[in-house]
Protein backbone atom coordinates (compact mmCIF):
# COMPACT_ATOMS: atom_id res chain seq x y z
CA UNK A 1 0.00 0.00 0.00
CA UNK A 2 1.37 3.43 -1.04
CA UNK A 3 0.90 6.48 1.19
CA UNK A 4 -0.35 9.62 -0.63
CA UNK A 5 1.89 12.68 -0.26
CA UNK A 6 0.62 15.64 1.77
CA UNK A 7 -1.00 18.39 -0.32
CA UNK A 8 1.56 20.97 -1.45
CA UNK A 9 -0.26 23.86 0.30
CA UNK A 10 0.16 22.36 3.76
CA UNK A 11 3.91 22.80 3.48
CA UNK A 12 3.42 26.54 2.88
CA UNK A 13 1.16 27.16 5.87
CA UNK A 14 2.28 29.23 8.83
CA UNK A 15 0.71 30.70 11.94
CA UNK A 16 -1.97 33.35 11.54
CA UNK A 17 -0.96 36.97 12.06
CA UNK A 18 -1.82 38.53 15.41
CA UNK A 19 -5.36 39.88 15.51
CA UNK A 20 -7.05 42.62 17.45
CA UNK A 21 -10.55 42.82 18.82
CA UNK A 22 -12.78 45.15 16.84
CA UNK A 23 -15.41 46.96 18.90
CA UNK A 24 -19.02 46.23 17.99
CA UNK A 25 -20.91 49.24 16.62
CA UNK A 26 -24.60 49.20 15.82
CA UNK A 27 -26.53 51.74 13.73
CA UNK A 28 -29.83 52.81 15.31
CA UNK A 29 -32.44 55.47 14.55
CA UNK A 30 -32.68 58.27 17.11
CA UNK A 31 -36.42 58.38 17.97
CA UNK A 32 -36.43 62.18 18.40
CA UNK A 33 -34.46 63.29 15.35
CA UNK A 34 -35.11 60.25 13.07
CA UNK A 35 -31.40 60.35 12.17
CA UNK A 36 -29.18 57.27 12.17
CA UNK A 37 -26.57 57.24 14.93
CA UNK A 38 -23.90 54.68 15.76
CA UNK A 39 -23.70 53.23 19.26
CA UNK A 40 -21.06 51.00 20.84
CA UNK A 41 -21.63 47.83 22.85
CA UNK A 42 -22.30 49.98 25.96
CA UNK A 43 -25.01 52.09 24.28
CA UNK A 44 -22.84 55.20 23.93
CA UNK A 45 -23.04 57.28 20.72
CA UNK A 46 -19.87 56.96 18.64
CA UNK A 47 -18.62 59.70 16.30
CA UNK A 48 -17.25 58.12 13.13
CA UNK A 49 -15.84 61.32 11.65
CA UNK A 50 -17.21 64.09 9.50
CA UNK A 51 -18.78 63.34 6.17
CA UNK A 52 -19.51 66.16 3.74
CA UNK A 53 -22.39 66.33 1.33
CA UNK A 54 -22.27 67.04 -2.35
CA UNK A 55 -24.60 67.83 -5.22
CA UNK A 56 -24.17 67.11 -8.87
CA UNK A 57 -26.22 68.34 -11.80
CA UNK A 58 -26.25 68.35 -15.58
CA UNK A 59 -27.42 71.64 -17.09
CA UNK A 60 -28.33 71.51 -20.78
CA UNK A 61 -27.67 74.63 -22.88
CA UNK A 62 -28.94 75.43 -26.37
CA UNK A 63 -28.07 78.32 -28.66
CA UNK A 64 -30.09 79.43 -31.64
CA UNK A 65 -28.55 81.89 -34.10
CA UNK A 66 -30.43 84.92 -35.41
CA UNK A 67 -32.88 87.28 -33.86
CA UNK A 68 -35.96 85.13 -34.37
CA UNK A 69 -37.27 87.23 -37.30
CA UNK A 70 -36.24 84.66 -39.86
CA UNK A 71 -34.54 81.33 -40.28
CA UNK A 72 -31.05 81.31 -38.92
CA UNK A 73 -28.11 79.01 -39.20
CA UNK A 74 -27.43 75.79 -37.35
CA UNK A 75 -28.27 75.38 -33.70
CA UNK A 76 -25.78 74.20 -31.14
CA UNK A 77 -26.37 72.39 -27.88
CA UNK A 78 -24.22 70.99 -25.12
CA UNK A 79 -24.38 70.47 -21.39
CA UNK A 80 -22.36 71.60 -18.43
CA UNK A 81 -21.85 69.42 -15.39
CA UNK A 82 -21.55 71.04 -12.01
CA UNK A 83 -20.26 69.40 -8.86
CA UNK A 84 -20.32 71.13 -5.50
CA UNK A 85 -18.93 69.57 -2.37
CA UNK A 86 -19.28 70.91 1.14
CA UNK A 87 -16.08 71.14 3.12
CA UNK A 88 -16.25 68.69 5.98
CA UNK A 89 -14.44 69.66 9.13
CA UNK A 90 -12.39 67.11 10.83
UniProtKB/TrEMBL annotation:
Region described as Disordered: spans on this chain = 46-90
Biased composition of type Low complexity is found at: 48-66
The protein's name is ATP-grasp-modified RiPP
Origin organism is Kitasatospora setae (strain ATCC 33774 / DSM 43861 / JCM 3304 / KCC A-0304 / NBRC 14216 / KM-6054) (Streptomyces setae)
Amino acid sequence: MTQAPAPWGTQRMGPYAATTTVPQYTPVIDPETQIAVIVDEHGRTVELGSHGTSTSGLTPTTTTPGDGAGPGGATDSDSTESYDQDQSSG
